[in-house]
Amino acid sequence: MFEKIIQLNGREKGTISIVLVGVHGDEKCGVEALEKILPNLEIERGTVLFGYGNPRAIETNKRYTEVNLNRMFNRNEQFTTSEKESYEYGRAQFLKNYLNEAEALLDIHASSIPNSKAFAICEANAKEIVKFFPINLVVSGFDKVEPGGTDYYMNSIGKVGICLECGYMKDPQSIKIAEESVFAFLKARGHIKNNLIPQKQAYVRMFKKYFAKTDKFTLSKLFENFEVLKENQLIGIDGQEEVKTSKQSLILFAHKGTKVGDEVFLLGEEKESLV
């Protein structure tokens, strides 16, 4: 059911865009938003592709089946033999065919951390699109600290990649944010009439991603996304080692780690603009 890419064409020629949902199969807000949007959607100009990122993970309600699909868009030499044999790697190659066709991407996600706020992940090349999104926070720097996502891939081939985090995955509001953002994306891209006004938005740039060095990384506490940490504040214990901040920072996606190499948190800082 979720395998195929859906293509909608406008009456007039225009740009080509792609919307992905369910790249992580347990993040259902985008899937549910498309169920509401697609039956009655009419495109006026250009072409819009709609895709379900990880069909097997969506059907089993899991983040992924073998490996994280949203790390499979990196350079090929980055992957192990077992990763290249995974379902997710093959699915990434399939999706790349459509990403290569499009000029801009919106990839919809949600967080497993309660009370998470909605925000966009992008670089400066997306500013004229995300300014219309129903969010007040835009985060950059992911291409450098966390390469391998769909948005990273688009930026790496000279196109525009946007990842939208719609808040807590179990909050019904995340579906509404996903739905409104799909329409904002289509309007900003010229596929349907744009009657939106730009939002006032704040900016954060990520500068560090921490990977667990041992099989046991425990957080010093549960951190909310974008919680402010002081300089030299304890984040967690990695085996026997204390992990602290080097300067005042904002923490994002903080989780415990159970094996070496687990992604356990990111750090960022406020910026005046999307740079």
From TrEMBL:
Keywords, in A-Z order: Hydrolase, Metal-binding, Zinc
Cofactors: Zn(2+)
Keyword Zinc attributed: yes
One GO location term (cellular component): cytosol
SUPFAM superfamilies: Zn-dependent exopeptidases (SSF53187)
GO molecular function: hydrolase activity, acting on ester bonds; metal ion binding
Coiled-coil regions, chain positions: none
Gene3D superfamilies (UniProt xref): Zn peptidases
Keyword Thylakoid belongs to the record: no
Span of domain Succinylglutamate desuccinylase/Aspartoacylase catalytic: 20-187
Protein name as annotated: Succinylglutamate desuccinylase/Aspartoacylase catalytic domain-containing protein
Organism of derivation: Candidatus Uhrbacteria bacterium RIFOXYC2_FULL_47_19
Organism phylogeny: Bacteria, Candidatus Uhriibacteriota
